Amino acid sequence: MAKSKGKKKGGKNKKSSKGNVHVTSVSTNNKHQHSIWSAADECEYYAELGCHIANISRCRPSHKGKGTSDISPSPSTYTCSDFRYMYEHAMQIYPWLIGIERFDSSDYHPEDIEQIPDVAMDDEEMILTLTNVTQSITKICYITVYDVNVCDVDGNVLKSGVSSTTTFVRDGESANSKTTTTKERTCTTFIILCPPQTFVHLCSLAPNQTQDDSTTPITSWSQIDIESDIQPWSFHPNIGDEHTYKLHFPFHGLSEEDGSSEVVDTTTAYQCTQSCDGQLTHFFHGNYHAIDFACPIGTLLYSPVNGVIIDVNDSITDGKEVSGIAASNMFQWNSIMIRVEDESVDATTDPLYVEFVHIQTDSCIVQTNDKVKKGQLICRSGSVGFSPEPHLHLAAYRSNGDDAATVRVRFEGRAGPFLPQTGGWYNQNGLVSNYTPSTNI
After folding, report:
1. What is the pLDDT of residue 12?
2. Under 8 Å between Cβ of 295 and 238
3. Which of 238, 345, 349, 441 could disulfide-link to 437, CB 3.0 to 4.6 Å?
4. How far is CA 391 from the centre of its chain?
5. Which residue ranges form the domains of the chain, and what is each CATH number?
6. What would the mean pLDDT of 382-400 be, rounded to a whole number?
7. Residue 274 and residue 421: Cα distance in Å, rounded?
8. According to the model, what pLDDT value does residue 212 have?
9. How far is residue 432's CA from residue 435's CA, in Å, rounded to a whole number?
10. How confident is the model at residue 187 (pLDDT cuts 50, 70, 90)?
């Protein structure tokens, strides 16, 4: 694949996963059915799906608000007062956290600091702690805890999700003849944007739990499967970057003959569950301007551009397919990428590439080097990779390099171009007010 989401969303895998998620329906949390969401609404939405977010570094005074950040990963912007303000503010907006404290290197021998793990496990109080002992590096940390209940500061059990791996075994000589086996596990994932010189006390273990459905009591974190994906935060170098090309709405099909007539129901709208500068994953340089739309697995997806297919990745890797909130899912996904070839775009001076991610396995009906038109059917949506629920992840770039940063793009609407905002419902016309989703969505 041309673009590596592992470099954008993940990092070094500290511990291997034993399972991941397979979700077959879209979340229907009525509290979040209408209106544009705040950052707190977005965090609450994903907490219901087992993802508990605390973007602590965004709480320092220099952050002016969602979508207008002037944050730089540079440590020179951190002062003692910044740390105090950041910790106090973070504890207010992420009240589930057990605590945050400043790491003081003078309290440790240098050789002891080198031994401090990224995820510290206190077996006396049974508290799980994220550590960042670097002097200058903000880190993004995904930590998944399997098969047990964990609690917030008040002792309330945090909502968990489900993780699964589906294994495909060929049944006979036919490529289409195969059987599948799905293994599911309960898990809870923490997503923390952690400043340097900081300890974050995430959760405690719920009492009176036993190991693997046995009578053996859990008395140590070593009895629990935990995996993590931790890397330096790569903030977007130019969050205001925007391409002038307008995208066709990806759920809206047009006729193959001349593109003038519609071939799908135009009354259906799709909820944007993460937009630019999103709380879950859209704050890396390679995801910052991406747009997520919740949609059932198998939803028809149409080309948003006139262009050429340059990469298709919708096949099974090693006979397995993963999905859901496990940290290790950052490295496994399905996708298709298109290079825009349109008379309105100068491919030499102003190129544009558009990518669909999490698409359904074996759903692409186009191949590399095929030319496509706006509104042409190309594949179906899925939930492969790091995916709390079935959705389409759409991102645009100025190059197809592995480390390319995203660029903002708007959709062409009948009432004018539009940029989806988290929580809103959209169709080919733009924002749909007071939309009531069908039970089929």
Report:
1. 34
2. no
3. 441
4. 10
5. 5-232 (no CATH), 242-431 (2.70.70.10)
6. 97
7. 8
8. 79
9. 6
10. very high
